[in-house]
Please model this.
Amino acid sequence: MNEVEGLYNKIKDIYSDGIDILVHNVGSAPGGITENIGIVIWEKMLRINLTSAFYLTSLSLPGMKIKEHGHKKPKSFWKSTGRQ
Model:
């Protein structure tokens, strides 16, 4: 079981009705100059920033569909702080 699936299972244990609103508030950036970022760091950023959001959404949507309601909101740290 990976970390995202573990998180989802903990949420289901706490909230037996399931998820109504899913906010992805995740972000990671190594800082520095883009040309100095290696592929290992790049792939880690993708896993944190994109893959985790996709995976948690894919786990949550079936329950939202059964209840015929729910909302998902991608939340960008940079957008919420006005930084670009």
